[in-house]
């Protein structure tokens, strides 16, 4: 029987102790989880709730609001949910998506307040339903994240190391997994709020998404164009206050994505950390 963590090295690669290897792999996964979560919101929205369920959700939100809630606040709630439904419907119809992205991460040092500056990386992303994605980091250093819908590869070409992870057990779970597999619903999963909203405008609307169930993050946010339903940016804040934002540009939908982009194997002379074995 394979141990919970199996490390294998291809020809010429060095092997670190399992404990150190596991910690490095999990750190790598955590750094990229914010990216995955943001992607899920921007490209893998699932089945749109029917009109009755949507009306029920809107009514429930209004009923849950304090009695002192003003008409203006209630209007913002309704508008935010309307924009979320527009986004849901737009990406429900999308079969594949390609875009350039710029990701900025602001980390918080525990006990020491915010760290100075922010790290910015850029690259290209491709997505195809169901649950397939490829994030190609280009600057300032190359790296790759690829999923075929059942497993996830994280590749660091500089370190010559690749980690292989399941997407159906622990590493990506709950709401994140639902969105990844195209089964999620924004209004079912999140309470959606905004400070400024015009659903009939082409001006972007900033939506805060608060998870209805306990999650491994504090909140998510997205900037959407209510006219097109396309998402221009996403943000995730984890439980420690670390914030990752991604801006999308040159977005193309249903232009066709080569399926081979999601079928990836590590090159020779690369150390592979295999986390596919059951714990």
Question: What's the arrangement of secondary structure elements?
Answer:
Elements lengths: L5 E4 L8 H26 L7 H14 L6 H23 L2 E11 L1 E2 L3 E2 L4 E10 L3 E8 L3 E5 L3 E6 L4 E6 L7 H7 L5 H4 E4 L11 E7 L5 E8 L6 E8 L4 E11 L17 E4 L5
Parallel strand pairs: 9-15
Antiparallel strand pairs: 1-15, 2-5, 2-14, 3-4, 5-6, 6-7, 7-8, 8-9, 10-11, 11-12, 12-13, 13-14
Considering the chains and any ligands shown, give keywords for the structure.
279 residues, globular, single chain, 5 helices, alpha+beta, 27% helix
Q: What can you tell me about this protein's structure?
A:
The chain has 279 residues and is an alpha+beta fold. It has one domain: outer membrane lipoprotein receptor (LolB), chain A, CATH 2.50.20.10. The chain has five helices and 15 strands. Helix 1 packs across helix 4 and helix 2 runs antiparallel to helix 3. The protein is globular and about 65 Å long. The N terminus is likely disordered.
Helix proportion? 25-40%
Largest sheet: 13 strands, mixed
**Overall 3D shape:** globular
- The total count of strands amounts to 15
Order of helices and strands: EHHHEEEEEEEEHHEEEEEE
The CATH superfamily is identified as Lipoprotein localisation LolA/LolB/LppX
Distance between the termini: 11 Å
Structural class: alpha+beta
Name the strands of the widest sheet in spatial order: 1-15-9-8-7-6-5-2-14-13-12-11-10
- Uncertain stretches of 5 or more adjacent residues: 1-18, 22-66
Overall residue-averaged pLDDT value? 75
Counting structural domains, the number is 1
Radius of gyration: 20 Å
The tally of helices reads 5
CATH class: Mainly Beta
Percent of residues in β-strands: 25-35%
Name of the CATH architecture: Clam
């Amino acid at each position: 029987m394979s141990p919970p963590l199996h490390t294998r090295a291809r020809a010429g690669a060095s092997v670190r102790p399992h404990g150190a290897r596991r910690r490095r792999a999990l750190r790598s996964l955590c750094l990229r989880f914010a990216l995955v979560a943001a992607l899920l919101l921007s490209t893998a929205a699932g089945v749109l709730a029917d009109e009755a369920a949507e009306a029920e959700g809107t009514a429930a939100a209004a009923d849950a609001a304090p009695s002192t809630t003003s008409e203006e606040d209630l209007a913002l709630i309704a508008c935010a949910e309307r924009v979320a439904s527009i986004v849901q419907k737009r990406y429900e119809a999308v079969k594949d998506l390609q875009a350039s992205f710029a990701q900025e991460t602001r980390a918080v040092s525990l006990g020491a307040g915010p760290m100075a500056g922010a790290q910015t990386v850029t690259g290209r992303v491709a997505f195809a339903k169901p649950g397939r994605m490829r994030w190609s980091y280009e600057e300032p250093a190359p790296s790759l994240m690829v999923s075929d819908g059942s497993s996830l590869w994280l590749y660091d070409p500089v370190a010559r190391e690749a980690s292989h992870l399941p997407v159906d057990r622990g590493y990506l779970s709950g709401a994140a997994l639902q969105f990844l597999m195209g089964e999620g619903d924004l209004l079912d999963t999140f309470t959606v709020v905004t400070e400024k909203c015009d659903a009939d405008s082409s001006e972007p609307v900033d939506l805060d998404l608060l998870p209805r169930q306990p999650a491994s993050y504090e909140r998510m946010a997205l900037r959407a164009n209510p006219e097109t339903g396309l998402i221009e940016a996403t943000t995730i804040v984890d439980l420690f206050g670390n914030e990752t934002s991604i801006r999308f540009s040159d977005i193309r939908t249903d232009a066709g994505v080569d399926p081979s982009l999601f079928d990836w194997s590590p090159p020779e002379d690369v150390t592979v950390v295999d986390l596919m074995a059951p714990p």
